[in-house]
Design goal:
It contains seven helices and eight strands; from the N terminus they run H-H-H-H-H-E-E-E-E-E-E-E-E-H-H. Helix 1 runs antiparallel to helix 2 and helix 2 packs antiparallel against helix 3. By secondary structure, the protein is of the alpha+beta class. It has two domains: about 80 residues, no CATH class; about 140 residues, Jelly Rolls (Sandwich). The strands form two sheets. It has a four-stranded antiparallel β-sheet with strand order 1-8-3-6. It has a four-stranded antiparallel β-sheet with strand order 2-7-4-5, with no helix packed on it.
Amino acid sequence: MPETIPSVLFEWAGYAGVALCIGAYAALQGGIIRGSGYLYAALNLAAASLLLVSLVESFNLPAALVQVCWIAISTFGILRVFLLSRAIRFNAEERELLQRKFPGLPRIAARRLFDAGLWVDVPADTCLMREGEVHGVLIYLAAGTAKVYSQGVHVGTAIPGSLLGEMTVLAGEPATATVILSERARIFRIEAARLHRLGARDPEFRLQLESALSSDIRIKLVAANEKLYGHGSKPALGRPDAPAPVSAEP
């Protein structure tokens, strides 16, 4: 050990490395950071580097080898995410969907989402969903409008930017409304089975998906209550049957 460096610095480097290692793992398990992102790999790289420094005072070959391998793996992970992210491209309609519904979704996960789904041009008067039937699909209405019917009564209009199927797609339940296009439309659709596979592969993607769906449902319920009781009235929580001015969940 160099005599010019106090031994306490090596000791504290070890403490800091342990803190970073445990903190990164706790943040990962708590859903605060992503396991496939830059931050988790960078924290592990810093933790392993500090632990390796701490071994200078009292060298232990097995422990040093573990930290060297940890540094190499973390560096590889950072480079992999960087290269994959740089290679990913989104067109205008994909960027708009991400901005509206999944602003925090990592680029790699977003690319998997689009690759698993399909963009479709659909003619007017097409029934996208029928009340009481299980469709097992999530639809994003990128362009065009659609009329929403519940028990044969027109209860709302789906406008560009609406999600259809957000309440039922993950649970596999029947649609609660019928949705018929008023004009030619452009949609993105993805089957429930593929969403489940993406979620099983990437738990963080599932959390982001559930958050986006919950947010969309909440916005529609607030809008429905405002339409029923006025903008200054207290929202009537627990009224999923209320007609929404944008899109009632099918």
